[in-house]
Amino acid sequence: MPAPILELLVLALLAVAMAEVAKRIITGVSFVRRFVASLLVFLLTLPAGTWVMEQTRIVTPDGTLQVSWPIFLLVMVLCFVWVFAAALTGLVVLEMVLPSGSMPSPIQSARDIRMALRRHRRYLQLGWIAMSSGLWKALRKGPDSPGFGEALVKMLNRSGVTFIKLGQVLSTRPDVLPNTVMTALSSLWDTAAPAPEQNIRTMLRSQWGRDPEEVLGSFDDTPFAAASIAQVHRATLKDGTAVVIKVQRPGAAEQVVVDSDILLRFTRLAEQRFAWARAMGVDALGRGMTKALKEELDYRREARNTKAIAATLADNPAITTPVVDEELTREKVLVMSPVNGSSLVSKVDTLDDDTRHELARTLMTATLQGILVHGIFHADLHPGNILLLDDGRIGLLDFGSVGVIDAETRQLIAALLVAFVADDNSAATTAVTAAFDVGDEVDRMALQRDLGRALTLLTHTGDESAATLNEFFTVMRDYRITIPGDVAGAFRTLTSLEGTLTALSADYGLLAGAEDAMPSIITKLAAPKQLAMIAATTTMTSALLARRLPARTEQITDLLARGQYTLNTRMLSDRSDRQWLRSRLDDAMSSLFAAVAVVLAVVFIVIPGGPAITSTLTGYDLAGAAIGCVGLVLILRLVVRLFTRYSGRP
């Protein structure tokens, strides 16, 4: 092996060894950073080491050794230790200037650059779409101008998955947009442009691992429904069974990643700059939407959700859901039985008043039962997911996003809804403080008064729209009360449902529907069997505690009677307190030893005399160099500990 390569290999091995030793002294620094710092210090200090050997007369300029081998090895070890100390010094300075984690790794940097390029290309694409769709011109005139809704729909439809979903969410927010724009946005639920036929067949082939013709008896390339993330095709299996196949749009998952990043950057910036964005909570809205999108990308999750919702509707013959073919369902392909019908809202004009009212009541009751009784509910009940079947039943579709609420929270939400119906602000305040995260600084009486005002507006103005219900959420925001995600999802489901309810029956809004449905729901929640089970579990738990109480009481009273009852307290019994004291003692001892080592090193170096090793080097010099190196390492260790502690790093 050539000598230069051998030297580099030895240096690399020494750098690895030094990096591992440095790990014991400076924690939290990556191996790559420690290795590079050690290698650089070795390369930079080699000339300095040669100069030291010549100045101390250990080696002559022609390479002749002037001291014994033990002395030479001792000096070499000492030089190596100082090189190690120099590497530690470089690491400490680097950590103070550029702490570990403040800069991405090379691999992460490459990924970030790739993402940035994709994001900038997407920025340019979205800008061109906005201009060519006429949205820039419409924006100058405002949302109330003619043609604004049409231009917005055109722009969102051409922008892809994430922005179509944004338009769908906005179409259920009457408190944000005018009715004309909401009506235009509602077309995004079921009129998205279909993907090319060949791309869909390629997706099926990649998911099944074989050609669609080998799995299916027939497949209709023209989708009968196209939404933001997927489109649905009619097909038959080999045995002739009719099915519908929901296929994810090719490239949808990758596009969601880029668009979600752009959207969240915009929502964060909007909340920083605009008061209206903070009031609307656009950042939370964006984060919730992107999370729901990621969940909707896995159709195996949707298959499980469909089965769960179907189980909650098992005793409701008026509502049905598709039956999933689990054998053919994959991450991006969902196969299920057909649900033959049309959008319920589109069929309203063909129904008589009694049928419309009964459908509204059935839909509202089933939704509230899912939220309050079963604890699992459809979290995306927009009009496009509610069908009127040919046999008069209601069909629900698209279970990519569902909400789950625990039993105690369900009872508190039920109490809150009853308080809404009864205009009882005291009960509403109690339910809010029990169900939501209410800070200690919140004035309960002021909260009760403001909730009472919101309930009065809700019950006595005759306006039961989602915009009026938002008075309640405004109070929550004003008092900085955090509503858990699934609970907020339940309220969002109800507000999304409001459009369908009012289309069926103009006087059947959210409040009227809740007032109509709550008696049957309370009956289920307070059913004797349910109450008996709760009472049984409570009684069993209480009985176990009660059995232990007499023995504990007897033990305490006996000790008191004999005057032997004592309270045993231990200082620093908490582990965190012991760790705090140990770290402070460690710092103090390190400071003391470092100071002593530095003073001794200076004393040894400046004191003349000592056993002569060469004409310019004495034993005192070597001792001072060794002790000084120990002091430097202790100082560096102390600096790192203090820096990591007060910078909040682990």
Task: Please characterize this protein's 3D structure.
Among the domains are: 3-97, no CATH class; 342-526, no CATH class; 575-646. 65% of the residues lie in helices and 7% in strands. It contains 24 helices and eleven strands. Strands 1, 2, 3, 4 and 6 form a five-stranded antiparallel beta sheet that branches. The protein has a four-stranded mixed beta sheet with strand order 5-10-9-7. Helix 6 packs parallel to helix 8, helix 7 crosses helix 13 and helix 15 packs antiparallel against helix 20. The radius of gyration is 36 Å and the shape is extended. It holds the Pfam family ABC1. It comes from Propionibacterium freudenreichii subsp. shermanii (strain ATCC 9614 / DSM 4902 / CIP 103027 / NCIMB 8099 / CIRM-BIA1). This is ABC1 family protein.
Please specify the SSE layout and strand pairing:
Layout: H1 3-25, H2 31-55, H3 69-97, H4 106-132, H5 135-141, H6 148-159, H7 161-170, H8 179-185, H9 197-208, H10 212-215, E1 216-219, E2 225-226, E3 230-237, E4 242-248, H11 252-273, H12 275-280, H13 282-296, H14 299-312, E5 319-320, E6 333-336, E7 341-343, H15 353-374, E8 376-378, E9 386-389, E10 394-396, E11 402-404, H16 407-422, H17 425-435, H18 444-460, H19 466-478, H20 485-504, H21 510-525, H22 528-561, H23 575-606, H24 619-646
Family: Belongs to the protein kinase superfamily. ADCK protein kinase family.
InterPro entries: ABC1_dom (IPR004147), Kinase-like_dom_sf (IPR011009), Prot_kinase_dom (IPR000719), UbiB_kinase (IPR050154)
Domain Protein kinase: 218-491
